[in-house]
Amino acid sequence: MKSGKFQTKGFKFKQFCIEGGESGMPVSTDGVMLGAWMESPSPAHILDIGTGTGLLALMCAQRFPDAKITAVDIETTAVEAASHNFSHSPWHDRLSVKHTDVLSFSPPQRFQRIVCNPPYFNTGEQAKQSQRATARHTDSLRHDALLKCCYQLLDAEGKASFVLPITEGELFIELALTQGWALSRLCRVQPSEKKPVHRLLFELAKQPCDTQESHLIIHSSDGYSDDFVRLTHEFYLKM
């Protein structure tokens, strides 16, 4: 029988299951899009910052069979949920989670890839649930500090992938460029053809490069769009 914290039904993907316990980061379309969209030829080490339930780390483990994935989070409940989900996955031997603030994280190696679904409420009232507030509010991990930390943790050829709402994403990219990052990939996401861009998927590189730009529409008139299905079909059960 499962422990009390993990008696919820959970969210089943094709090769793993996410059970959230009391974590502040439930499964979101943003996270799934980011995990499916990020690219890398053959990373040896991947870092998932603010892992929550471990979704992005698990997606990376599925996609990159030779990679070792380290996940970090400052919330005890998130670390417990991620640890549970990792231990019940097919890749438990390549996944680890650390209960730490990434700003004080000192790993023994640099990473080829970093993936992060960062907090984005810069102003306004914090969410009432404390874990969810931490997961979504920039007070716990300001974007400038996050960018500087990522730069230090990546190797020379490393890249970092993020997802943010369009306004916060544009500000984040502008800040990154002032810190010496290059924008290597950018995908503008619309919920549907009739609605404006609401999310940015983007990849930052330490080395100078051109920007590869793309566009994604999530929903068509009769369900998910063909492009969204192609992007996520390796993960969602009904794709």
From TrEMBL:
First-tier enzyme category under EC: transferase
Cellular compartment(s): Cytoplasm
Pfam families: MTS
InterPro entries in alphabetical order: DNA_methylase_N6_adenine_CS, SAM-dependent_MTases_sf, Small_mtfrase_dom, tRNA_Adenine-N(6)_MTase, tRNA_adenine-N6_MeTrfase
Family: Belongs to the methyltransferase superfamily. tRNA (adenine-N(6)-)-methyltransferase family.
Physiological role: Specifically methylates the adenine in position 37 of tRNA(1)(Val) (anticodon cmo5UAC).
Protein name (database record): tRNA1(Val) (adenine(37)-N6)-methyltransferase
Source organism (scientific name): Vibrio parahaemolyticus
